[in-house]
Structure formats: structure tokens, C-alpha cells
Amino acid sequence: MIMERGYILKISSLVTKRMTFVMIIAAFIVTTLSSCGGNNVDSSHDIPLSFTAHTEGLISEKSPNDLPLSTQVGIYVTAKDADITHSYYINRKYTSTSAGVLTSSDMIYLTTGLSYDIYAYSPYTASGNTSGNIEFQSGTDILWTPVYTLTNVSTDNQNVVLNFQHLAAEISFNVVLGEDYTGSLKSFNKSSTITVSGFYEGAILNLSSGELNASGSTSVSLSGSGDGQGKMMIAATCFVPTQGMQLKVSIIHDGETYNGTITDNVRAGYLYNYAITLHSVKELGISTTIDDWKAVQGGTGDIK
Questions:
Q1: Which of 96, 115, 250, 295 could be disulfide-bonded to 71 (CB atoms 3.0-4.6 Å)?
Q2: pLDDT, position 193
């Protein structure tokens, strides 16, 4: 009985040692995994990044501006020169406050002495993924900033300035009644509408290159307000620009429909204003001239 007990005790002791050994290995594995995790941050040398963000000129304005208050930004961080698919931080959401400062409830921390590439876009969308391809719908003012490289991170080098570019363009219309207009309704009201078709339905942003891959086709119904004196202002809307853009325009006024086509080469970051005149004959013809500036006068057009 004594030998049996001793044997049993000996086995128990071996089991205990083996369990301890297994626990040590498990702890080692956990430590190793955590050090190889997505953030690549040494907890004893972590530095919080500080962000400010500006645009090269808000659409319809001519000078750089801070991001509008509460604008949401998506941020990716990789090791310097690494592919964006190997990001340490993926689609981290930040929000603009005063003076273009970006804040987050989940701050980005980087390791001192290392160098990183930082990518950003706006507006933030939860569909952002590890590939760095971001989906947007028509009507979105898409902002993107070229890669920002932060070299040798330190307490004196942790500030990131993001200068966004507009990848969308904007279009607006001023509609007036011509002197030869013979319809009974001499001013625009709520029943006066304008529909524009031919916009891309959506686009995918390649965050690394800033390229937009647009697809599909959609129409947009635009509303405006009449001044009671034969003029109607149509609020601007964003769209994905393209060379050789062709838009179908349909205006309904006083029970009559006026149709026409706009053909133009449009560029990102520009506001295109089109002045359209309604005449008695309901055929729309538009020609445009482009000025090389952020706010672009799109010329005039007549509906006859």
C-alpha cells in the first residue's frame, strides 16, 4: 500500500510538472502572438499620433480649408513602403473637431524609432476592408490624401498633416425663362423639377493610388427654389467625373417637358455651373466653357 501510494504520488508530481511546462509554453505562445499582432506596438515605447486635416479647397471655394466639423475620416497605417494589405491599423475612424484636428475614441499608437505610411479618405464607411478598396455611391464628396510617410517616430515627430484632395466633381444649374417663353406659368414653383441621368451609380476608391473605378448608371432628381421672377436655382450635387461626360437633362415646368444633353470633359475638384434658358420650343442645347479654377462657370444653354 505504501509503495502504491508512493507510485501514485510520483505520477502526480510528474503530471504537475508537465502541466506547468505546458502552461509556460502557452504563455510564451500568447506573448509571441501579441507581439506579432496587427498594431506592432511596443507597449513601453508607444507614441499616440496627432492628426490635423485640410482640403486643397472645398468644392465651390478657392482656398484651402479645414475639414468641416464632424467630418469622419478612415485611416490605414502600414510599415514604410509596405503594401496596404499588410496594414497595422485598418480603417480606424477619426472625426474632425475645430481647426481640422482629428480625434478618435480608439487612438493609433506607433513604436518610437520606426517609420510608417499613413493613408486616409473621407467620408468614413464601415465597408473599408483589408484590401484598401472603399465603396461609394453617387452623390458623395469623396476625399483622399496621398500617402503620408512618418519617419523615425518620436515624441517630437508624431504629428500628421493630411491634405485631402477632392476626387468628385460638383454640378449645379440656374434655370431661367427666356423672353420668348410663351407658357402661362411665368415663375418656377414646387412642381418645376429637373432630372439628370447618366451619372455613375457608384465607384470603388483604391486607397493606395487614389484611383476611382466607377460603374453603373443612375439618374438624380434635383430640387431648387424659384425667386418668383422666372429664375430657379438648383442645389449642387457631387458625382464621379469622367472625360466625355454625357448627361441627359429633363426639365418639367408648367406641365411641359424640356429635354437636352450635356456633353463635357469634367475634372475632379471643380464645380460646374450651367445656366439654362427655357424657350417656347422644347429642345435643349448646351455648350460650355471651362475656367481653370475650383469654381467653374459652365457656360450657358438654351431650351427652345
A1: 96
A2: 77
